[in-house]
Known about the structure:
The protein is mostly beta strands. It has helices at 53-61, 74-82, 91-95, 155-158, and strands at 14-15, 17-22, 28-33, 36-40, 43-48, 63-68, 99-101, 108-110, 115-127, 130-142, 161-164, 169-172. The longest helix has 9 residues, at 53-61. It starts with 13 loop residues before the first strand and ends in a 16-residue tail after the last strand.
Amino acid sequence: MKKSIGVYSNLFPMPVLMIATYDENETVNVMNMAWGGICARNMVALNISEGHKTTKNLRQRGAFTLSVADIPHLKESDYFGMVSGNDVADKFARTGMHAVKSTRVDAPIVEEYPLTLECKVVEFQESASGLRVLGEIVNTLVDDSVLDADGVVDPAKLNAFVFDTFQHGYYAVGEKIGQAWESGEKFM
Length: 188
């Protein structure tokens, strides 16, 4: 039997996305975000509030990188969601992580994250429900260590984790349990 629990903005899993931007002083800022993802073949959507340092940087620079958080950097990734760049100017430096400037967009690439999308801002959509930033993916960078023999990203090697909006936990992902467009063939 199902029980009604009211209106919750909870789904599982939620991605743990790391948005990296530069501020007006070329300082790297990274934000941990679960409210975003792929919204078209070459587009991402970020649902973000206006008060974030990241939002200011997006408006000023028009670019960002979006990385998948991985288990080896869980503590750093969580810290990026705990502390605002508005309050702690050197929050990226405190983690000891490293960044290089993208050659395609005006944003930093966090070297430790194995999968990064380089994106340019194409639209700010402001509505009563909040701010959505649409970004065009101009390139994808991937570390060789997470590729399979065919040069395709292996989710098990990616070591990604997801966010649990119900109890605020992080969970590892990676075990393959079926094949898309084949597992349901028996119902055809």
